[in-house]
Amino acid sequence: MNLIDQIKQHARQNRQRIVLPESYEERTLKAADIIIEQGIADIILIDNPKSVGENARKYGLKNLEKAQIVDPAHYDKTEAYANLMVDLRKSKGLTKDEAIKLLQNPLYFATVMIKYGDADGEVAGADNATGDVLRPAFQYVKTLPGISVVSGAFLMFMKDTSFGDNGLMIFADCAVHPDPNDKELAEIAVATARTTRAIAGIEPRLAMLSFSTKGSASHEMVDKVVSATQIAKAMDPSLKIDGELQADAAIVASVGLKKAPGSEIAGKANVLIFPNLECGNISYKLVQRLAHAEAIGPILQGMAAPINDLSRGCSVDDIVDLVAITANQALGPK
Ligand code: ACO
């Protein structure tokens, strides 16, 4: 069974409630139909039941009647959700009227639903930009204890299975936080180690990447990576992590041996932590295109509940896979 099938199987065994706020969107509804049919998750749609019914008929979808359909305009908890929002955004001066208005936006409604305990996770972004999906999540679901930044990891399935664990590597942050400081970079490393265990099901060996290996260059950008490595070790002393390492020292055994002798990570890394978003985003796309690696993600990590953002070019299958991954995040380590 491949990793995605294992992830779907794990989701089926303990069904989580996943909300799909873009409930008017064709690929989202088609994915919801498949997810319900395959028992991968319990689906919550946010729209009025009449529209969902019309779309179900239009697209020939038979399973959507088994979804929970929540219409914010006629929902007995909307008032309670607004009160919760006002409470959570007290310091920002949010009024009840403003909260009720925000709840008309399904992306806000979905995140508050999770915060209130009525859903376990969310997948959106087939029809909305990354920032619009993430902002409500940052504001209402917020981050896990000890983590202040959300970041995005990719599962990279390499054609050359000599890399990582049988070709599987995890790259982060490739999607969210443009310019992390040393503490934030350490948090990204710790969060990525958790994702590696919970989703990829493998033991992480983290390389903190730089343009320098073990002092070969001196620059404040190198100092940041060295400091981040120390902070990450202090945050989780059980982590197998080393840095600063250049990419070749991290993944090629002979280079690792030469540039970082004695390192338990050099030449054997299965998790690559990039020093900033430019490096991470450019690298995953180059590896995907030039090395024909399959890239699954971004899997958002560090959030207090799993919320994942799709690419607007996503397929129905991408949505199904991301819902299964989100359900696994909600379940925690296997
Ligand atoms: N983690 C947790 N909270 C965050 C983060 C983060 N990484 N970034 C911002 N926040 C919080 C802020 O603290 C703030 O909270 P507050 O309202 O309680 O004070 C709130 O979110 C809004 O903060 P802003 O600084 O106004 O953030 P903004 O909404 O402008 O931007 C965003 C956030 C959209 C994620 C921005 O960092 C961004 O655009 N990142 C790049 C996303 C991107 O384009 N990725 C590449 C494409 S994805 C791909 O290729 C797979």
In short, what is this structure?
The protein is an alpha/beta fold and 334 residues long. Helix content is 46%, strand content 15%.
What labels would you give this structure?
binds acetyl coenzyme *A; 2 domains; 46% helix; Rossmann fold; 13 helices; 334 residues
Structure, described:
The chain has 334 residues and is α/β, with parallel strands linked by helices. The protein is 46% helix and 15% strand. The strands form two sheets. Strands 8-7-9-6-5-10 form a six-stranded mixed sheet, with helices on both faces. α1 (3-13) packs across α13, α4 (78-88) crosses α5 and α6 packs parallel to α7. The longest helix has 19 residues, at 182-200. Acetyl coenzyme *A (ACO) binds next to α7.
Along the chain, the helix and strand elements come as HEHEHEHHHEHEEHEHEHHEHEEH
Label the overall shape: globular
- Termini separation: 16 Å
The molecules bound to the chains, other than polymers, are:
acetyl coenzyme *A
Number of structural domains: 2
Give me the number of helical elements.
13
The profile of the biggest β sheet is:
6 strands, mixed
CATH topology assignment of the largest domain: Rossmann fold
